[in-house]
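Dear colleagues,

As part of the handover before I leave the project, I'm documenting each prediction I ran so the next person doesn't have to rerun anything. This entry is a single chain, and its sequence is reproduced below.
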Amino acid sequence: MGDQTRSGPSPAGIAARPWRALPTRWRGGQALVEFAVALPILILLVAGVLELGRGYGYAVATSDAARDGARYVAGKTALTDGPGLTSMCSLITADLAAVTTNVSCPTLVAHAPPFVSGTDFTSPTGGQAVVAVYCGTSVDCRGTPSPLFQSRIDVYVYYGFNDLNLFGGRITISGSSRTTTSW
C-alpha cells in the first residue's frame, strides 16, 4: 500500500465508477468533444439564417422597385399620358442603388404575365437586376386616353442573388407589381 508510483485511480477503478463520480478533468474533455461535434452544425445554422435574412432584404428591395416603377409609369405627366419606360427605368435603377448598380431595363414583353426566363427576358446573372414590363396595348407605356383608358401595366424585377452556396449558389429573386393606368 505504501509503494504506489501513480497518483490517481487505476483504469479498472475508473471503469467501475458511475459517470458522475469521474474527476472533473475527464468530464471537461467530454464537453469539449461534444462542443467540437456540435460547432459545425451551429455555424451552418447561423450562416443559413444570415443568408435567408440577406435574401429577404433583396426580395423586399426588388418588390419595392417593381411597385414604384409600376405606380410611376401608370401616372400622367403634364406632357404625356405616361412618363414612358426610360423614366421608369431611371426610377427603378435609383430604387435598387443600394442592392446593385447592374440593372438591365426595360425589357418590353408583348404579352401578359407570366413571363418566361430566357424567352421573354434574359435571366439575370449574379448581382444583376433585370426588369420586364408589359404595357397592355401601349407601345412604350405612353398611351392616349381614349383607346387605352384604364390599361393594365405589369412590372417585374428579377435579381440574381448569390448566396454563400448554402442553398445551391445563385437564386433568382423576383418582385412584381400590377397597376391600372390613369390614362
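The first strand starts at residue 102 and ends at 108. The chain has a mean pLDDT of 81.

All the best with the project,
I.
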